Amino acid sequence: MSNRRxxxxxxxxxxxxxxxxxxxxxxxxxxxxxxxxxxxxxxxxDWSVRFGGECLDFNPEPVIDRRWAKRLDRFAQxxxxxxxxxxxSSGLExxxxxxxxxxxxxxxxxxxxKELEEQHLRLIEKGPSKVSAFTIPKLMGNAASGNISILFxxxxxxxxxxxxxxxxxxxxxxxxxxxxxxxVDLMITGGAEAALTPLGLAAFTAMxxxxxxxxEPTKASxxxxxxxxxxxxxxxxxxxIFEELEHAxxxxxxxxxxxxxxxxxxxxxxxxQPQECGVGAAAAIRAAxxxxxxSPDQVDHxxxxxxxxxxxxxxxxxxxxxxxxxxxxxxRISSTKSAIxxxxxxxxxxxxxxxxxxxxxxxxxxxxxxxxxxxxxxxNYTPLxxxxxxxxxxxxxSFGFGGHNACIVVGKFD
Length: 414
Known about the structure:
This protein is of the alpha/beta class and about 425 residues long. It contains 13 helices and 14 strands. The chain has 2 domains: about 10-250, Peroxisomal Thiolase, Chain A, domain 1; about 260-410, 3-Layer(aba) Sandwich (Peroxisomal Thiolase, Chain A, domain 1), CATH 3.40.47.
């Protein structure tokens, strides 16, 4: 085990409600800006929830031309654009790597919901002969990974993961395993989601899962706060180049961070509610730390799942306390969702960009709207404003419907 292949991050790309680039996303995140606003993509004037984290600045060109864009659902467009940014920032050139040693693993909790809605409406209104021939290739959950592999000529392992809000982190964990086994030398990995559609919003509203703070959208996502009343839907993508260390060194790559460990577990409890004591989440956190060959007190920062739900925030707090003990009070914790909402299957990807950026810049991003900590929420969640801190080891948590828990640990690379 001592000669285990080391995995590093050499590129990052983001599509988010704050910005459609990784650097600008980080800049606006630490400045305390919010990407949550009244929805503009469809008429919500009579809806009980009228806001979310839309990617209003997103433009697929010039990465995706208009003809190709028509054959892609919005979630796949997000994934491709973010993947191209990650690839370009890594210093790679298309055709410059062994295609058989290059793979793609992406996550999406729902996939092409927009396409499904549009084609179902066409079926009902115009009949079966009017349904698009591109319906299935657009809505399938593996559309992102398939199209990315085609774009970059990556002939190695190419799969897609669907574990609800843990999808991106599970995908990145699978990429780590493929790299460690020696199946590949580099992977494009992360997650994408574009479920902020009429059906998506209506369905989550029906579950009573969402905040209804329509008069103050920017204050609606308030993880760990006493007045939190549900999560805020968002959309976007976070993608990476994960690379075997020696492969990265040989080509003189700029190394952003090292991927140290990954862990996952299942609550085996309820299809949508977290286990209140947080035992399942704690198991994934513990597994990630063990895989990283660290002790809990070596972790400096956690980008929490922190959804702003009454049950979830307390359960995560209890899980952190169970694993870290007295060290939990020393941890610098943030919830990125306070600024961009919950990106569902993409959340782990965008949040890992924030995690890597935090250790690179020595800045803990803020948890917006945390004005009065809720009962049971008594850790340092970095309320309201970013804080300077020396950070060496950081973790990103992702917990999804179905009881899926996934955690990834990254370290500063010197």
